[in-house]
Amino acid sequence: MRLPRALFGRSFCEDACFPVAQVEEGSFPWTEVGPWGEAYAAAQLQREGYVIIDRNWRVRDGELDIVCHRGTTLAFVEVKTRRTGSPYFPMNEWVNDEKEERLYRLGALYRRRSRQKLRRFHYIRCRFDLFSIVTGDAISKDPSQRSTSPLRSHHYEDAFKAHW
Fold it and tell me: Which range marks the domain in which residue 113 is found?
C-alpha cells in the first residue's frame, strides 16, 4: 500500500508534516544533509520507542537507511531529507516504484543475512516506513550552531507494503 496520492496534490509541508523548531541559517554542504537527516530520524524513532538495530546497512545493490524494531514489528525506514527549494521537493518523487522494489529486495536480503542478530527481537511482521524531512534552504555550517530539528518532518508507518 502506497501513501495516499491525495497528499501529493498540494505542498507536502502543508498537508503531511508537523512543524518543529526553525533551522539555523548559514551554508550547509549538500553532502551532509542526508547524514544529518538520518541521524535526526534515528533519534526521533528512539524517542518514539523504537530500538535501532542497524543504520546505513549497505550491500552492492543498495542501502537500508535504518532498520529498527518496536513491539512485534521490524521496520525498514527509508529517510528522505530535502531542502524546501530542492528540485525533488514533491513527495511523490521521493520513493518511486523502482525504489520500492529495491527496498523490498534489500529488506529480504537483510532478513536472510541477519538471522542471528534478529532472533532476539521476536518480530512477527515487517513493514517499510518513510521518514520525510524538509529543512530550510540552509542549515548552519558550524556544527556547534546547528539546530537538532528540521523545519518539518513526518514518520509514515507502513508507507508501502512488502510482497512477502
Answer: 18-160
